[in-house]
Amino acid sequence: MLWIANILLGMLFVLLAVYYIYFTPPWNFPSTIPTIPFYVSFLPFFTKCDQEKIYSTYLQKPMEKHGAVKIYFGGRWNILLSHPKYLATIFKKEQTYAKSGNHLKVSKSVIAAYTGENVISAHGKIWRVFRNTMTLGLTQYDEKIFFTNATLFSDMIKSKLTEKEMLKPSMDSTLTLIASTGQETAVQKKQKCMDFQKTANDDSSKTLDMLGCNAEQTNCKSGTVAMTDPIQRLALANISEAALGLDFGTLGNGDPELHLQLKLVKSQIFQPLYLTFPFLDNLPIPSRVKARKDVAKFRETLLAKVTSSLMNNFEYEQTNFASSSLIKAERNQQITKDQLVNNLVIILVAGHENPQLLLTSLFFLFGKHPCWQKKIRKEVQESDKSFNSIEKLPLLTAFIYETIRMYPPLSQIINRCTVKKTALDHNIVVPKGAYVGYNVYGTGRNGKVWERPAVFDPYRWGHSIDEITDNWRHCKQDCTMAAFHGGNRACLGEKLALAEVKITFVEMLSKFEWRISPNWRERMTPAGPLCPAGLELCFQTLDPL
Fold first, then answer.
1. Which of 411, 296, 308, 309 is nearest to 345 (CA)?
2. Closest C-alpha among 234, 378, 390, 247 to residue 305
3. Tens digits of per-residue pLDDT, 456-477?
4. 448: how many CB neighbours lie within 10 A of its CB?
5. How many other C-beta atoms can be found within 10 angstroms of the C-beta atom of residue 374?
6. pTM, 2 dp
């Protein structure tokens, strides 16, 4: 019986070890900040909770009270910050809170194989080489690319709409659209709409109002569009042409190979279970083995395209794209071939994904706030639609900034590791080797930082373009707005991303009006990137002026 007792003791020891490693933070983590329950990070895998629900339920109160918490994510315990003064500290002390991306944090994971060591994740001398190499190509670009692609995108949306006779907006906002059939006259359609309005309950009235209200007969295109795929195509076209100097054909007909591969890879990487427990990627799980192979294939496809389009014909010698500069650096042996591919991948991945998320949230909020859509459409129509004019549109600019505050594309970032024991303030001492990150969503929703943080109010940024721009700059400096990071590691692509977003919505607001589809249930993505999940919109074309 002794051997049974030994086995039981051994099992107990293993369970205690697992509990200590996974369920409790390291003993040297600061005891002055609260611990978020271990299971919170992988709730999306087992429940239908989205990021907003998880934050409001488990993180909001401790985050607002303490400005920092201990949280389990990415296979380890981390210190997560949200108070602006703590964010300012880690941005300022970049050498102490050193960047340590997935290639170091979870070196054998699929996500590490996806992007490797790059300009976002690297630290020290090699990061400076990457940044110096890529700065020109990411900050100087031809905005005509975005105008062309915005037109192609609006044509794509229009092609997805069905031809039908509609009732044109001319009544009160409470008068709503009812789909017509047969050969009804305009009078009959109007009467049908009014009869329905008399008998509709509150919920159905809201549904009809979302579809839009029409009274006059006209030939327009209208219908519901699933937005995820079209927006990704647009964002991929913009970054590949503006920063890589390549056209992957994502806004044309068909499904280009790179686009198909990228969609496949993204569907496999951003899964809460594997983001929370990256060690599972090392097990012979068939789906993870396949994910690793798909990542390798995507990287090979991208390099092959760059090789055939830029390297083999020496096109890179005559251009200043970020890709061209990277190729020159590799040829001059400043970076390795693997580092070249890593940075090409991160330009394409981060350069399309963050604008894609922001575009999706903007479409959502324009659909949710038709009064703002109407105001900004009027502002757009009164402008000359040149790039200089677009940059200075106050309402559009404020609307974008407010969207970023409420729905930052990357809601949570944990990619810094302390190189020595340090202190965030007199009350929070951080040990050497601790991973530290920040919850940008939490900063934007903090009632101690923002007045009425849950209210969508673009006017909080100001009314004139100078006031709005100054407030944006000030909020970045004091870290109340950290969506584009800060300090020496501020995002190189901010200007490019904001330019493509503004140009896209000038085009879309000129051509369409839209509302949220009544069939779509409002829900944010469950983990990782933040935006409305599977957004569907009801579009209607506008008569040309």
1. 296
2. 247
3. 999 999 999 999 999 999 999 9
4. 11
5. 15
6. 0.85
